[in-house]
C-alpha cells in the first residue's frame, strides 16, 4: 500500500497525459454525434477503434507488416555495411574526409525521397525502389557517426595498439572499431528510423508494398474509419520501432 | 630580404588538394552518368545525357511557369512553417516551462516526432481539400514536432539567473516570455526552425507530388508522367540545390556570433 502511495505522484503526470488523450477523444465523439463536426470528414473515434480490429483481420496485415519489415531490414543492412565502410574510409584517409564530410552533411539535408519518380524509372514500381531510397536516405547519419566515433578514439588506446605492433587491420578491428561502436550504434539507429519513415512514405506514394499502401488503398476506397485506423496502426508501429531501437541502442551501449 | 619575403604570409592558392579532389569526384560522377547515358545498358531515355539535362535546365530556368510554381511551393512552405512554427514554439514554451506538463505530454511529442507524417495526407485532404490548404497543413504538421522539442529542450537550458531577474522584477507571464524566454532562446528556436524547414519542405513537396495541380512537386510528377526524363532530372537538381542552399543559409544564421546573453 505504501509503495502505491509512494509511486502515485510519479504516475500522476502519465495519468494526466493519457487522461487528456482520452478526454480529447470523448470530446470529438460528442461533437461528431451532435453534428458539430461533419462525420464524413472526421469519423467517430469509437468507429475508428472498432475498425482497428477489422483492418488488422481483413487487410492482410501480417503480410504487409512482413513486407515493410523486410524492406526496412534490407535497407538497414545496406546502410550499416556501406555507412560503416565509407565512414572508415573517410577516417583512414583524412583528405577524403576533408573533401567529403560537408557533402555528406549536405546530402543528409537533401530531400532525397523527392527523387522517387526517378527511382521508379530506374528500378520500376518494385521493392527495390523502396529499399534503395530508404538506404540512401539513411546513409548519411551512419557515415557521419562512424567518422565521429572513430575520430574520438582515445589516444592511449591507439598507443597501446601501436606498442603491440598491430597491423592497420588489427588496429581497426581490435581498437578503433570497438571504441567507436557506441557512436556507430547511434548512427545506425538514426539511419534505421530514416529508413522506416522513407519506406512507409514511398509505399504510400507509389501505392506499392506494405503498410504505406494500406493507408492509400483505404483512403481511395473512402473507408474513413478504416483510413484513420490504418494511420493509427502505422503510427503505433513506428512508435514501437522507435522504442525498440532506442532500448537496443541503450543495451548495446551499456 | 629573400628570407623575409619567403616568411611573409603566403597568399592562399585559390585551389587546394581538397578542392582538386572535390573537382575530381564531381567530374568522375558526371563522367559515370554520361557513360551510363551512352552505354545502352538502360532503356532509351531512362538516363538522359548531360547535355540533354543541361538544355532542360536552361529551358526550365528561363520559363515563367517554373518561377510561378516555385512561388506557389515557397508560399505553401512559408505558411506551413509559420503555423507549425508558432504552434511548436508555444507548445515548446509550455512543455519546457513546466516539469509536470513535460512529464505528462513530452513523451507523446518525442515518440510522435519520428513517425512518417506523409501518412496523414489523406486526412489533410479531407479536412482542407485538394488545394493548397492540405499542402500547408502537411508542412505545418511536419515542422511542429522538431520545433516544439527543440524549444522545450532550449527552455530548460536558460540560465536560471535570467529567470530570477525576471521574477524579481515581478514580470508577468507575457513579459517573461517576450523579455526573458524568447531572447534567451534565440539559438534553439532558430535551430528548431532550421530542422522544421527541412521537414516542412519535404512534407509539402511530397504532398504536391501525390495530389496537386501546381507547385514544384507537381512539376516533378508531371515530368515523370510525360516521361520527360531530362526535365525530371533538371527539376530534381534545382530542388536539391535549393533545399541544401536554404538549409546551409539558415545553419549559418543559427550560428551567428551576435547571439549573446542579454
Give a structural overview.
The complex is a heterodimer of chains A (254) and B (262). With 254 residues, chain A is mostly helical. Chain A has two domains: 2-42; 55-253, Orthogonal Bundle (MetI-like fold). In chain A, 85% of the residues lie in helices and 0% in strands. Chain A has ten helices and no strands. Chain A has helices at residues 2-33, 45-58, 61-92, 94-109, 116-123, 127-151, 155-163, 168-206, 211-220, 224-253. In chain A, helix 9 runs antiparallel to helix 10 (224-253). The longest helix of chain A is centred in the C-terminal third of the chain and has 39 residues, at 168-206. The two termini of chain A are 34 Å apart. The mean pLDDT of chain A is 88. Chain B has 262 residues and is mainly α. Chain B folds into two domains: 14-47; 58-254, MetI-like (MetI-like fold), CATH 1.10.3720.10. Chain B is globular, with a radius of gyration of 24 Å. The N and C termini of chain B lie far apart (51 Å). The model of chain B is unreliable at 1-6 and 256-262 (pLDDT under 50). The chains are: A mainly alpha (254), B mainly alpha (262). Chains A and B meet through helix 1, helix 4, helix 5, helix 8 and helix 9 of A and helix 2, helix 5, helix 6, helix 10 and helix 11 of B.
Amino acid at each position: 500500500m505504501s509503495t502505491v502511495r509512494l509511486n502515485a505522484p510519479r504516475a500522476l503526470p502519465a495519468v494526466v497525459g493519457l487522461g487528456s488523450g482520452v478526454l480529447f477523444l470523448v470530446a470529438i465523439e460528442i461533437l461528431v454525434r451532435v453534428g458539430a463536426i461533419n462525420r464524413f470528414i472526421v469519423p467517430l473515434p469509437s468507429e475508428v477503434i472498432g475498425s482497428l480490429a477489422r483492418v488488422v483481420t481483413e487487410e492482410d496485415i501480417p503480410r504487409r507488416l512482413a513486407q515493410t519489415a523486410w524492406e526496412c531490414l534490407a535497407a538497414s543492412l545496406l546502410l550499416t555495411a556501406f555507412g560503416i565502410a565509407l565512414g572508415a574510409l573517410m577516417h583512414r584517409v583524412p583528405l577524403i574526409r576533408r573533401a567529403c564530410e560537408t557533402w555528406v552533411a549536405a546530402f543528409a539535408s537533401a530531400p532525397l525521397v523527392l527523387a522517387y519518380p526517378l527511382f521508379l524509372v530506374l528500378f520500376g514500381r518494385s521493392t527495390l525502389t523502396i529499399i534503395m531510397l530508404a538506404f540512401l536516405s539513411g546513409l548519411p547519419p551512419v557515415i557521419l557517426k562512424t567518422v565521429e566515433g572513430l575520430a574520438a578514439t582515445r589516444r592511449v588506446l591507439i598507443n597501446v595498439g601501436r606498442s603491440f605492433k598491430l597491423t592497420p587491420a588489427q588496429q581497426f578491428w581490435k581498437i578503433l572499431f570497438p571504441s567507436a561502436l557506441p557512436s556507430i550504434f547511434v548512427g545506425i539507429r538514426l539511419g534505421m528510423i530514416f529508413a522506416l519513415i522513407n519506406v512507409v512514405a514511398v509505399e504510400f506514394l507509389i501505392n506499392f508494398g506494405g503498410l504505406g499502401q494500406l493507408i492509400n488503398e483505404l483512403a481511395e476506397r473512402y473507408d474513413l474509419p478504416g483510413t484513420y485506423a490504418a494511420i493509427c496502426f502505422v503510427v503505433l508501429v513506428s512508435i514501437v520501432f522507435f522504442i525498440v531501437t532506442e532500448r537496443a541502442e541503450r543495451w548495446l551501449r551499456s | 630580404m629573400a628570407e623575409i619575403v619567403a616568411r611573409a604570409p603566403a597568399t592562399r592558392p585559390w585551389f587546394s588538394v581538397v578542392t582538386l579532389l572535390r573537382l575530381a569526384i564531381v567530374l568522375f560522377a558526371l563522367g559515370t552518368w554520361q557513360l551510363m547515358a551512352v552505354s545502352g545498358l538502360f532503356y532509351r531515355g531512362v538516363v538522359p545525357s548531360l547535355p540533354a539535362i543541361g538544355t532542360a535546365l536552361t529551358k526550365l530556368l528561363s520559363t515563367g511557369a517554373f518561377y510561378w510554381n516555385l512561388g506557389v511551393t515557397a508560399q505553401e512552405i512559408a505558411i506551413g512553417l509559420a503555423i507549425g512554427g508558432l504552434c511548436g514554439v508555444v507548445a515548446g514554451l509550455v512543455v519546457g516551462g513546466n516539469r509536470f506538463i513535460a512529464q505528462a505530454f513530452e513523451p507523446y511529442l518525442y515518440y510522435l516526432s519520428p513517425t512518417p507524417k506523409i501518412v496523414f495526407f489523406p486526412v489533410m485532404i479531407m479536412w482542407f481539400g485538394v488545394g493548397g490548404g492540405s499542402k500547408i497543413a502537411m508542412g505545418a504538421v511536419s515542422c511542429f514536432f522538431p520545433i516544439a522539442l527543440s524549444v522545450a529542450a532550449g527552455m530548460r537550458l536558460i540560465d536560471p539567473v535570467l529567470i530570477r531577474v525576471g521574477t524579481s522584477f515581478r514580470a508577468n507571464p507575457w513579459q517573461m516570455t517576450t523579455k526573458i524566454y524568447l531572447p534567451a532562446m534565440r539559438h534553439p528556436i532558430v535551430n528548431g526552425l532550421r530542422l522544421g524547414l527541412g521537414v516542412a519542405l519535404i512534407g509539402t513537396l511530397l504532398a504536391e507530388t501525390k495530389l496537386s495541380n501546381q507547385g514544384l512537386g507537381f512539376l516533378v510528377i508531371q515530368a515523370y508522367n510525360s516521361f520527360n526524363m531530362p526535365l525530371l532530372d533538371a527539376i530534381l537538381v534545382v530542388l536539391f540545390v535549393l533545399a541544401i542552399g536554404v538549409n546551409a543559409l539558415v545553419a549559418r544564421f543559427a550560428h551567428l556570433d551576435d547571439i549573446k546573453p542579454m
